[in-house]
Amino acid sequence: MLNKGSKAYSVLHRKCPHCHEGEFLVSRNPYDLANTGDLMPGCSVCHRKFSTEPGFYYGGMYVSYALALVQSVSIYVVLLVLFPETTQTTRLLWVLGGLVVFSPVLYAWSKALWANMFISYKGVAPVVGEDPKWRMKEQAKKLA
């Protein structure tokens, strides 16, 4: 399940959705706040782009929202089941604290998830008949 070629591998390791080898984000550390969510222009291994058009990752906001919702509900339910004597205010503070602490991680995963929804695994070598919109300009010139 977590082998190269699976979408889960690409998302959890934040690797190139095309080849699962190159880096997807500028910084591997989601808490590097200067580079949080910044993508590489393309893969350094397979030389494919990570987006075809400006605004491609706006849809990742919906994924980020869903991940934050799952996290918030999980924290709330865990507190409700394991610590039933806690107040609503305490539970709310734990949920908000969890959102603040894990926001950079959720942001990175949401971009990786969004990319993997639209980009399939192809391996490192160029695929015959592959849509040229995914190739970086230098690579497109070499293949033409």
How would you describe what is shown here?
With 144 residues, the protein is mainly α. It has one domain (7-138). The protein contains four helices and no strands. Helix 1 packs across helix 3. It starts with 6 loop residues before the first helix and ends with a helix.
Helix and strand arrangement:
Elements: H1 7-13, H2 60-82, H3 88-118, H4 137-143
Helix pairs in contact: 1-3, 2-3
Q: What is this structure, in a nutshell?
A:
This protein is mostly helical and 144 residues long. It has helices spanning 7-13, 60-82, 88-118, 137-143.
Question: What's the count of strands?
Answer: 0
Question: Tell me about the biggest sheet?
Answer: none
Q: Structural class, please?
A: mainly alpha
- What ranges have pLDDT less than 50 throughout 5 or more consecutive residues? none
Residue-averaged pLDDT: 88
Query: Whole-Å distance between the termini?
Result: 36 Å
Helical region count? 4
Summary keywords:
single chain; 144 residues; mainly alpha; 4 helices; elongated
